[in-house]
Amino acid sequence: MVDGIEMEISFSGDLSEEQRRRLTEIANKCPVHRTLSSPIPIHTRLRA
Questions:
Q1: Successive 10-residue mean pLDDT values, the chain, 48 residues
Q2: Which of 9, 24, 40, 43 is deepest in the core (most CB within 10 A)?
Q3: Secondary structure string (H, E, C) spanning 16-42
């Protein structure tokens, strides 16, 4: 069972603190991040 995922982000270039904050906010809203942080129902069925 997975009990956590660590994400590390780095930026290159001369970015302001506001730009870094906004890019981090965008990264937290990407489809992969949203999928991994939401509950995923698992439906099991018997195959005949």
A1: 85 95 92 85 91
A2: 24
A3: CHHHHHHHHHHHCCCHHHHHHHCCCCC
